[in-house]
From TrEMBL:
It comes from the Bacteria. This is DUF397 domain-containing protein. Pfam families: DUF397 (PF04149). Residues 12-62 form the DUF397 domain.
Length: 67
């Protein structure tokens, strides 16, 4: 995982889940050379980037634990 400060600036298309509510707990995700994740209410705090293997492991764990 790397922060946005170590990434070269590449325009990304950000997506927010349709499950996101209006209580400020939302994140946005962008696919690129790495998967970016950021807080929708505090974008200025930066972005976390995950490699493909890290992202797949995260998604699998989330799916396994929240079904």
């Amino acid at each position: 995982m790397r922060s946005s400060k170590s990434q070269r600036r590449v325009p990304l298309e950000w997506f927010k889940s349709s499950y996101s509510g209006s209580h400020g707990e939302c994140v946005e995700v962008a696919q690129g050379p790495a998967t970016g994740v950021r807080d929708t209410k505090h974008r200025e705090l930066g972005t976390l980037f995950f490699g493909a293997d890290e992202w797949r492991a995260f998604v699998k764990t989330a799916q396994d634990n929240f079904r």
